[in-house]
Amino acid sequence: EDRIEPIPGKDVTLSIDAQLQIRVQAALDPRTGLTSVQPWHTHSDALSIGEALPAAAVIIDVATGEVLAAASTPLPQDQKFGGRTSMASETANINRAIEAAYPPGSLVKPLVYLAAVTEGVLREDEAIECNGHFFKDRTDAARCWIYRERNNFTTHSKLGVEEALARSCNIYFYTLANRLGAERLCEWYRRFGLGTLGGTIPSAQAAALVDSRHDQFSAVSLGIGQGPMTVTPLEMANAYAILARGGSVRSPSFLEGGNKTSAMYTFSPTAVSRTLDGLHRVVSESYGTGNHIDYKDGSSRDPIIDTPGVRVWAKTGTAEAPPLKVDRDQDGVIERTVTDADHAWCATLVANQGDTTPRYAIAVIVEHGGGGGRTAGPVMGAVIR
To answer: What is the pLDDT of residue 243?
Structure first.
């Protein structure tokens, strides 16, 4: 056979910041304590204190679309991963930041609001009543997360988007998803880049079928990031970067120089401002889901993200996860199956204190970590620092 000699090309420079990547990777290491089971987490007691939890984090430069860090744990050399679970060890060679896909949970809520306003099915300042459950005759389905017996079936009452985001009210976003319909909502998710880099969003045909069958439960579930959809952490960080740019789409790039704008969706500046206000309240107001951690014994209240010198816009998310099969000694025998340990998410936009334009978009996930604020929030705080 003839041999074709190589032709030297131009140097390729990655966008990854090596020092930042190392520090983010260290923050995800379970030995730091942030990605291992802690007493203040809200997941099932079936997970033992100290058990390692797989996790990932992505940081994108908003202006350029460059990926500055994409960290994942466990690493390939951590096949045993502390004897945690067969699921973790068998997938240690996967970079969860860019290859693993999960239900996004409440992280999609700001995207749903912008889609609803842009499509004209919601006024920018419209308030919606939260009575705890979306269906009038069903109190056991499509409920708000706060509408539980342990909370005395509390509701959020009437609220606008700012408070709806800060409190993460499900009813507000069930309502928007119902007005949009599954087909339009899924199209907007794709415009935000979801389902394009490893995740899955129902096709136009599948979403239209949901609408034609008048399957309201499936349709409204998509409005809070549940149902037949998954996203990668890279996709989620990219979606928040698009939000921060006011609708300007740049594909995330691992090469220095980034990518040019490929599309431009014209969002109402007022709607974007309201969205950012709500995301800031998530961390700045006492009722925000990313503001603080209350301990079970009532001993203290700790802020979740408290880095000085920066302004943070955030959204926490708690997404239903598949059953977790635990095999601590790695002998192939499943010791127990945990069915109520959710994935913990947090996504943020970050700027210098006093600035109103976000510089970085960040997404963090902790597998089976429980509550997004309690588990992914402190990891996010470490990443921001």
So the answer is: 98
